Amino acid sequence: MASPQITTAAAFAAILTALTMPALAQNLPTPMEEMPPSSRQTLTMPGPTLGAEPTDSAAPSVDDVMRVESAESSGVKMSYDDYAMNQMPALTESSATWLRRGIWYADLEGVVYDRVWDREELSIATNTVAFGNNLFDIGAIGVNVSDHGSEGHGRLTLGRFLFRDLNNRDHTAEMVVFGGGEHYQRQQADSTFPGGITLTTSVLIDSTTPSLDQSDSMSMDYDSRFHSWEWNYRVAERLNHDRMELMPSGNWVRRAPHGYTKEYLFGLRLFDLEEELLLEAQGVRSVNQTDGSTDGDFRVKTSNNLFGPQFGLGLTYETDRWNVSFHGKNGVFINDASLSRSLAYNNSPSGTADDFSREVNRNKLSYMMQAGIVGRYHLRPNLSLRASYEVMYVTSVALAPDELDFTPEKIDFSVSGDPFYHGVSFGTEYYW
Fold first, then answer.
1. What does the alpha-carbon distance between residue 303 and residue 313 come to, in Å, rounded to a whole number?
2. By the 8 A CB rule, do 303 and 362 touch?
3. Cα–Cα distance for residue pair 25/193, rounded to 1 Å
4. Within this chain, do residues 77 and 183 fall inside the same structural domain, yes or no?
5. Contact 216, 260 (CB under 8 A)
6. pLDDT per position as a tens digit, 256-310
7. Which among 141, 137, 138, 301 is positioned nearest to 212, based on CA atoms?
8. How far apart are CA 129 and CA 135, in angstroms?
9. Angle (CA) 68 71 76, round 5°
10. Are 384 and 377 contacting, i.e. CB atoms less than 8 angstroms apart?
């Protein structure tokens, strides 16, 4: 049976340990102070050295412990070697704790997109030119389906960390705002003689309505732009804890695990696609053949408001300093599409030309997909650079060039456009 002195000593030791452990824990490095995991971070540890006789390693002394505590209390940040005191392993913090820290995060990117919306060129008007005694019609004005040029957009992601579950996954809520650029085309043609610009069959204006035919000059402006808002709930896996490896030299090395992590998201998205095509004609001879002083313009506006749920997946290859990931999201949305067409003339002879304006709406289901591959380099625990290539595809939308016809009685329009965007992005990710 143990003596009362031994029992009292054991109880006192247990109480002292319970009182001192919180103080020591408070002096450990916080996640924001953690050093990046190095694949070659070496710590001197007790262990066998090749060719040397095994020896007993002394436990850390009280002086060593007091030295570390005194330095920390003075504001000096101690390294893992100081905590190890050349006797104990480095703190096995997770590499994923060194990355993506903080309660809030923001991604700011510049995106450059090219746009393709059809497979064929669209001719709007021809220009009649004379060669000798012969007249020839040449292509004058048209919409180039792939010649909008590269256009810049901005994208901001603002998110907040919610919690980490038992499976070592981060749950976050975020909002994404994307858009701002305008894909624009302009063409202009001047006839070599009065009334030489003629509309093609692509522009169907009712025979009872004066058209822009036989004009002296004509111009076309085509503008397409989009804005997107997203509200997502994201679940992302994290890397496992680093591992400590004993080298043949007797040194311990902390190694960051490299591997794959998965993530998924679901949320709501609002996507607004608006287009406008304007034809302006000067000297419209079909309306005023006397002096050619009548001008006219034909304006077509389309608007698509897509709203609905979306779902996304992602796969990332993680290392301590960089990662590469593939991500994609898609959804089926309700499209509230609208069309506005107007035909107006200036200085037309009295009673020969009237102004017309028509607006119609219809709803349709649309599909939208966005995917890309992105690479990141971590400058600091809370700051990363990123670059990506991505694509975006939208179906069942109304496009202005598909509505170049004007019949006052017409109440229907096409909602079958499928624009495709692709390009690159560059930006930063910041956590706080």
1. 29
2. no
3. 90
4. no
5. no
6. 778 899 999 999 999 999 999 998 888 887 776 666 678 888 899 999 999 999 9
7. 141
8. 6
9. 125
10. yes
Residue by residue, DSSP assigns 231-271 as EEEEEEE---B-EEEE-TTSEEEEEPPPEEEEEEEEEEEEE
**Of 57, 41, 68, 58, residue with least CA distance to 251:** 41
Structure tokens at 277: 């095509």
Q: How far apart are CA 21 and CA 23, in angstroms?
A: 5
Q: Model confidence over 371-399: pLDDT tens digits?
A: 999 999 999 888 999 999 999 999 999 99
Which tokens hold the place of 176?
Answer: 């994404």
Q: Are 267 and 229 in contact (CB under 8 A)?
A: no
Same domain (yes/no): 71, 124? no
Select from 186, 205, 195, 223 the least CA-distant residue to 343: 205
Q: Is residue 36 part of a domain?
A: no
> 165-219: per-residue pLDDT in tens?
998 899 999 999 999 999 888 888 887 777 778 777 666 666 556 677 778 888 8
Residue 242 tokens, joined:
């680093």
Question: Which phi and psi (to 5°) does residue 84 adopt?
Answer: -70, -25
Measured in residues, the chain has a length of: 432
**254 closest CA partner among 94, 86, 29:** 94
User: What digits encode the pLDDT tens for the residues 55-111?
Assistant: 444 444 555 545 544 554 455 544 444 444 444 444 444 555 566 668 999 999 999
Q: How many domains does the chain have?
A: 2
- Pairing type for strands 356-380 and 197-199 reads unpaired
In a domain, 110, yes or no: yes
Containing structural domain, residue 71: 1-31+60-91
